[in-house]
Amino acid sequence: MSYKKAFLSIGVEAEVWGLGYENFSTPFEEMVKPYSTILLFENYDTGWVPDLSKYKDKLRINVVVDAHCNLSHLVNTTNKHDIQISLGATKGYLPHFDTPERWCYWLPNCYDDTLIYPMPSVSKSVNIGFCGNYV
After folding, report:
1. Half-sphere exposure at residue 125, Cβ-oriented, CA atoms within 13 angstroms
2. I want to staple 49 with a disulfide (CB 3.0 to 4.6 A). Which of 1, 22, 45, 96 is the partner?
3. What is the 8-class DSSP label of residue 2?
4. CA-CA distance, 5 to 95, in Å (whole number)?
5. What is the radius of gyration, based on Cα positions, of the chain?
6. How many CB atoms lie within 10 A of CB 55?
7. Within 10 Å of residue 83's Cβ, how many Cβ atoms?
8. Angle value at C-alpha 74, between 68 and 75, nearest 5 degrees
9. Is 77 exposed, middle or buried (0-12, 13-18, 19+ CB in 10 A)?
């Protein structure tokens, strides 16, 4: 929903559809009719994502933020859906998604500061934390 909020803030119409959303009962082909672009944010598809390769009239982009969890799965998903632009949060993994038919760009992770912000009143029990890899 943060991406939808960001797009709407710059005047770009956006809709979020997928597991857990009220509109998931609306057929995907109906949901995407008015849009020119499909952004795939699902990094752990368990088979529910429609075949995006069928939508040749739409720009198909995926946003890969968790490639370190299952890189081969995400590369296969990217190929299966005939993704045209791949945005990756892990710069070193971009070559795995790069093909002559696909543009790949580094898109570092970001956050919605209305959801994530300093909370000085919360006591800290761990001095430092890290999630990620060295690539």
Report:
1. 0
2. 45
3. H
4. 30
5. 17
6. 18
7. 25
8. 110
9. buried
